[in-house]
Amino acid sequence: MQSIPVDTSRLGVLRCAVGPEPKIADFETKEVKKDRDGNTIYSVAVTVRQEGRRVSVIEIAVTGEPKGMVEGAEVRVTGLDAFAWAMGDRHGISFRAAAITPAPAAGAPAAVSNGKAGGA
């Protein structure tokens, strides 16, 4: 399966729609999917909102539980790859990322450069 790198800067605003959940490998046994090193793979649903377009939801797999995910909050996705897949008459695109982290809060107070409160 060939990976296709995705330029996340062109995706617009990314928000957490559903927080991290362990990805299930076998629905009958409820076995959790692991990577080659035995680390749990998590799935995070992320909304993608480009200017002038509808909102889309994509599920992104990531190794290890992403911390600080709050539903509705903006997120940053690092190292996003897309994979085309086909199984019989079914086909689709899967997404995997190196990391998903909360976006820095907009309007966060700037650090005081002179070390004094009040800017004096």
Describe this entry's structure for a reader.
There is one protein chain. The protein has 120 residues and is mainly β. Helix content is 0%, strand content 49%. The protein is built from no helices and 10 strands. The chain has strands spanning 3-5, 13-22, 24-26, 31-32, 41-49, 55-63, 75-78, 81-87, 90-97, 99-102. It has a 6-stranded mixed beta sheet, with no helix packed on it. The chain has a two-stranded antiparallel ribbon with strand order 3-4. Strand 8 and strand 9 form a beta hairpin. It is globular.
Task: Describe the structure using short key phrases.
120 residues; six-stranded mixed β-sheet; mainly beta; 0% helix; globular; disordered C terminus; single chain
What does the largest sheet look like?
6 strands, mixed
The rounded Rg comes to: 18 Å
| Class by alpha and beta content | mainly beta
Assembly status: single chain
The total strand number stands at 10
- What share of the residues lie within helices? under 10%
Give, in spatial order, the strands making up the sheet with the most strands: 1-8-9-6-5-2
Order of helices and strands: EEEEEEEEEE
**Backbone shape:** globular
- N-to-C span: 60 Å
| Low-confidence region ranges | 110-120
User: How many H/I helices?
Assistant: 0
* Strand-residue proportion: over 45%
Task: Calculate the mean pLDDT score and round it.
Answer: 88
